[in-house]
Amino acid sequence: MASTTLIKCIQNDNNIRLTFYIDKDMRVESILGAIVEIQFINKTTGYVMTRNATITDAQAGECLLVLTSADTNLVGNYMVEITTTYSNGTKLTVQNPFMLSVTPQLAY
């Protein structure tokens, strides 16, 4: 079983650039005209944050999501779901391709 990548950041970090690729059965697939939505789910609190990724190279399935300080404001561990909705309405959802951990800022 493959391990899940853990992305760690500090509360209120910003400009965290996540580049990732959409594939189907380990094959690159065009996502031209698709919408790529990412949900971050905090299993402890039930909080769900939904963001749309920017498709940077549709033919290669390349996407970019930039997290802002508003996205990293709430401390916790987040499971991730990525849903690609293709132009024909077909959906492909991947659960936990990575996890996000937001830890508190240290008080000075």
How does the SSE layout of this entry go?
Layout: E1 5-10, E2 16-21, E3 23-24, E4 27-28, E5 35-42, E6 48-52, E7 54-57, E8 62-67, E9 76-85, E10 91-95, E11 98-103
Parallel strand pairs: 1-11
Antiparallel strand pairs: 2-8, 3-4, 5-6, 5-9, 7-8, 9-10, 9-11
Query: What is the distance, rounded to the nearest whole angstrom, between the alpha carbons of the first and last residues?
Result: 42 Å
Order of helices and strands: EEEEEEEEEEE
Number of domains: 1
Tally the beta strands: 11
The biggest sheet, with number of strands, parallel, antiparallel or mixed sense and barrel status, is:
6 strands, mixed
Q: Which range does the strand content fall in? A: over 45%
Q: What Rg, in angstroms, do the CA atoms define?
A: 15 Å
Provide a descriptive summary of the structure in words.
The N and C termini lie far apart (42 Å). With 108 residues, this protein is an all-beta fold. It has one domain (5-103): Immunoglobulin-like, CATH 2.60.40. A hairpin with a 5-residue loop joins strand 9 and strand 10 (91-95). The strands form three sheets. Strands 1, 5, 6, 9, 10 and 11 form a six-stranded mixed beta sheet that branches. It has a three-stranded antiparallel beta sheet with strand order 2-8-7, with no helix packed on it. A two-stranded antiparallel ribbon has the order 3-4. It is built from no helices and eleven strands. Helices cover 0% and strands 56% of the residues.
